[in-house]
Amino acid sequence: MTWFITLLYALEIPYIALMLMVIVGMFRVHKRPHSDKTPSVSVVIPAHNEEVDLPRTLESLAQQRYEGELEFIIVNDRSKDATESIIQQAASQDSRFKLVNVLEPSKRFAPKVNAVNTGIHEAKGEIILASDSDCLYPETWIKGMVSHFEDDVAMVVGYVETDFRKHNLVERFEATDWFSLMLVSRSLTHFGWKFASSANNQGYRRSAFDAIGGFGSSGRAPSGDEDLFTQRMGKLPNMRVVFASSPDTQVKTSPMSSLGAFLNQRRRWVSRYHHSMHYHPAFLASIACLGFQSIMLSLGILLSLFIPKLAPWILGIWALKLGIELVGMFLGTRQFKRPDLWGPLGLNSLAWAIIHPFFIGYIIIRSFMRSGEWKAGARSYRKRFYQRKVREFKRKVKHAYETLL
């Protein structure tokens, strides 16, 4: 089994190095900008059958304190419940709210992205803030996010955390896992790696959105592809992507309703990465390393139960991995004042770290068994992609033939 140990260590060592980089990134302090500018802002919120959570979200938005021109564009995407009437009521009470209806599905974008895109086309603001219909915001959210838009900033990636509802084990694991993603995203952004963001808390210049051609390929994933969108923003010349993590910019999102819903959400997220045609190579390498090391480590732990000779090697690298992850979680929970995610004696974070490789391995395997295939209406993204490549090839051949004549 020497080959197995060699392969496992070849995957674990880069992963551990990446986690050490995340820890170092926690101490890369970036000076908080203090801009007094108050550009016009459009907040775009997509909503599909959200009568339960939407009232709290709209109430939270209505309490925003911002001195500049502000509008809330709430996009009703063919809801069959009371979502539209809730938006209408908010608009009748506050002129900043505007109802926009999506009547037909898009053949180009996934439904959620199509709703946001429709809202952006109706928006008048210089700055677009995008979030979701099950989120809560501090009253300083808009002002805090806008303050990060220095002249060379194209996009602001905002911090998101899970808002506990039932305080059960599934919610606790989800909250800890989400927190770990935020820590990684923040640290990599501090190093200048513009790789990832959450659709629950994004801000970008309207001019930057237009400059990259809108959502484009990042809009075809089942629920949108925030990572690809962020990477496309990061390619704009002489522009930056920054991370906003101060308390005045933090957004709370509702947890998944059940374990099944949580697993299906993560399956959809992982399914995005089956399509490697547009991602930054370093980002793909990081995702591949995380996935394969999780599968190999999970398999190694199970095999060590039956092959005692493997146990010291497997348990040794697993202990090192757990130790580094726990150091990162300890520092992160202290920086963000989230001792509840650390737990008594670190037991909450320890439980997450132990389960994590099995969780990731399961999600990856399930994503291949039931992939959240990129869709453009009823036609798969892959089919559209290759059809376009064939058309481009035919045009080149035709042009070469006409040139020879």
Key traits:
405 residues, alpha/beta, 12 strands
Your description of this structure?
Helix 11 packs across helix 13 (347-369). This protein has helices at residues 2-25, 54-62, 83-93, 111-122, 141-146, 169-190, 206-211, 226-234, 259-271, 281-304, 311-335, 339-342, 347-369, 381-404; strands at residues 41-47, 70-77, 97-102, 127-130, 135-136, 153-158, 160-162, 202-205, 240-244, 251-253, 375-376, 379-380. It has 14 helices and twelve strands. Helices cover 52% and strands 13% of the residues. It has a seven-stranded mixed β-sheet, with helices on both faces. The termini are far apart. The radius of gyration is 22 Å and the shape is globular. The model is unreliable at 373-379 (pLDDT under 50). It is an alpha/beta fold and 405 residues long. Strand 2, helix 3 (83-93) and strand 3 form a beta-alpha-beta unit.
Distance between the termini: 63 Å
Number-wise, the strands total 12
Large-scale geometry: globular
Rg value? 22 Å
Q: What class, by secondary structure content?
A: alpha/beta
Residue share in β-strands: 5-15%
- SSE run: HEHEHEHEEHEEHEHHEEHHHHHEEH
Oligomer: single chain
> How would a textbook summarize the main sheet?
7 strands, mixed
Low-confidence stretches: 373-379
In helices, the fraction of residues equals 40-55%
